[in-house]
Each structure stands twice: as C-alpha cells, then as structure tokens.
Amino acid sequence: MKKVNLLLATLSLCGATLAGAQSLSLADDGVKLGVLTDMSGVYSEMTGPGSVKAAQMAADDFMKSHKEFTGKVSVVGVDHNNKADVASNKAAEMIDRQHVDVLLDIPTSSAALAASEVGKNKKIPVIIVSGGTTALTNEKCNKYTFHYAYDNYMLANGTGTTVTKKGGNSWYIIYPNYAFGQDLNRQMTAAITENGGKIVGSDATPFPNTDFSSYLLKVQAAKPKIFGTMQAGNDLVNVVKQYNEFGLKKQGIGLSTGLLGEQEISSLGQDAFAGAIATVPWFWNLDARSRVWALQYKKLYGKLPTYMQAGVYSASMTYLNAVSRARSDSGEAVVKALEGYKFSDFFARNAMVRPQDHRVILDVYTVQVKPKSAAKEEQDYFQRLQTIPAAKAFTPLTESKCKM
After folding, report:
1. Per-domain residue ranges for the chain?
2. In the chain, how long is the greatest CA-to-CA distance?
3. What pTM, to 2 d.p., does this model score?
4. Are 265 and 381 in contact (CB under 8 A)?
5. Residue 306, SS3 per DSSP
6. What is the CATH number of domain 26-150+285-358?
7. Are 113 and 161 in contact (CB under 8 A)?
8. Class in CATH terms, 153-280+365-391
9. CA 351 to CA 269: how far, in whole Å?
10. What is the C-alpha to C-alpha distance for residues 144 and 148, in angstroms, rounded to an integer?
11. How far apart are CA 39 and CA 82, in angstroms?
C-alpha cells in the first residue's frame, strides 16, 4: 500500500510539474500591446503619449519579473484623432497589420465603442481605460471588451450624490454633445434627482469647443447653487477659465466637474479649481504605494502621471499577468483568465473583473481640490473626502443591461 501511495504521489507531483511548465503559446512569438489614444488633441495630456509610455513601463517591468517573457513584449501607440471612424479603421489596422494582441486606453467614448466592436469581430481583447460611457458594460457589452479605471456611473454616483447631499441641490449642467457627455449628463441628472436635487438647466455644447460664454450667461441668469461642467481635457480648462472670468464663484455659484484630472488643474492653476468636488479612481499621492510608482514614472518620463496613464499601466500589467496564467495570448484564453480575477495593485484597490459584464470594479475616491495655500508639495491637489468601496462604486448588476 505504501508503494502504491508513493507512486500516486509521484505521478501527482509530475503532473503538477508538467502543468506548471506548460510552454507558452504566443502568436508571432511575442505579445504586442496596442495603445489606441489621442496623441495630439483635446485629451492628449490626459492620455496620449503618456499612456504609451505607461504601457511601455508596464511591459518593461513585467519582463523583468517574468524572465520567460524577456524580449517578447512590445508596445505600439496610434492616434485615433478622437473620431469614431478613425478609431475603427486604426483598430482594424493595428490588429491585422501590426498584429497587436490587445487594444488599450481609447479615450473619447464614441471611439471606444467603435474599437470595442472591432475587437469583438476580430476576437481581440479591448481594455478601455479612458473612455467613460457605461454603454461599454451595458447595452453595448461584449465578450472581448473590458472597462477599466472609471466610468460615468462612478463619476455621477460619487460627485452628484456627494455635492447634492452637501447642500448643492440646484444644478445647471453643460456637457459635450457626443456619447461620453450625453451619457454622463444622464447619469449625473439621475444621481442628483435621486438625492433630492433638481436640474434648472442643461445644455449640450459642441465638441471640441473653446467659447462657452453663451452657456455661462445662461447659468448666470439661472442662479443655481452648482454649475456642473461635464467637459474634460482642454475643453474643461476653457470652461473653468471662463467660469472664473464671469465671476460665477463670487456670485455664489459653486463649481462641480464630471471628469477632473491632474492635467487640467496643472494647465489652469490650482486656485482656479479650488473647492471643486470630483470623483477619481486614483491620484498620485493617495498613499505611499501610489507615490512610489508615480515617482518612478516621473523619473523615467519627466512628469507625474495622470490617473488615466496610471490606469493604462495597471491595465497593461493585468492583461500581461492574464497571458502568463493562460500560457497563451489568444483572445479566448486571455478573456477566460481575466473573468472573475481578483487583484489589488498600486492603482486598483480591492479590484475584481466582473465576469457578468467585464466591468473592473475597484475602490474610488471623492476628492476636493485644495487651494494652493494648502498644498504641501508640487501637484498636491486633492483632499480625499471619502472612499467609495468597489462594490458600491459602479453600476449594480441588478441594473445592468449587459447580455454577454
């Protein structure tokens, strides 16, 4: 009996060893990350070249810790000009001609939706970091698309709820007239009204845009407690600059933003945004762990990362770890390795890839912009007001329209 048990134990050990030593199956003998982004337009400072650099940093760090991948991971960055048709064509070209194994980043929701459709048809994973529309994990969800970092439900659930409960119960909203803005306006309106607030006005604005004066005159006349701007990137900078020029803050009309990142504050100055409340998935000096990574990024690339760029690093690493677990970069194998995966890194805390809709849930934070006088160091922008746990930050599955 002892000999039989010893033989079974030996066979079991051999099986485990063989499974652990399963050889890698990589198309073209390598893994190529494709960053489809805005390289020169309105969102280029939020994402753009900095996102390509973040993906490259992730590739380099991954190869250092996974020696069998040494020399096998590469990155390509492509500009989609914030246009859905360009994004669709570029996504197909990246897959067919440049042989990328995953598409990452993809700001501008219309572009993200277009690239998602290409990924579905070609069975290539698409990980949206910078596009905000919740349609990606609702009515437009598909097996190969994953939504990382943030989305419009998260922004509205955090900011709209917090500001309204703090007494900001009458709002005038302006939003960019494309998929992201339209969706965020719906989500923000729902969050405000569900918490007892009211919308006294709502206007769609051209995208991109530089002159918001006609809309600000309407806000001035309506006298809401809160002016909510759903713009982002350079458009947001222009809105807030003109908000201050019109003296709306001095007139008692508070500022709330739908999507606010570090680069907009840097562009216009901290005091221009002081007091504004926003919801973010991460910021560079959130804690020691975040600071260490952010300073490594700055050392390599000369500036601190935005949360979207940090999200691209995290998403790239999550994808590469899935390839390592699957021992393959085939879309089918990677999707299987990602679904239900739980993890926590410097960016995504208490995170999980929900298998039902491919929403990556994680802890997020409502923050308030500090005045410059309260900053303790360069780009010390945010005071954390609260942490929203991952399970409460995103669209509940009971409200999901996703049919995977």
Report:
1. 26-150+285-358, 153-280+365-391
2. 90
3. 0.92
4. yes
5. coil
6. 3.40.50.2300
7. no
8. alpha beta
9. 33
10. 13
11. 9
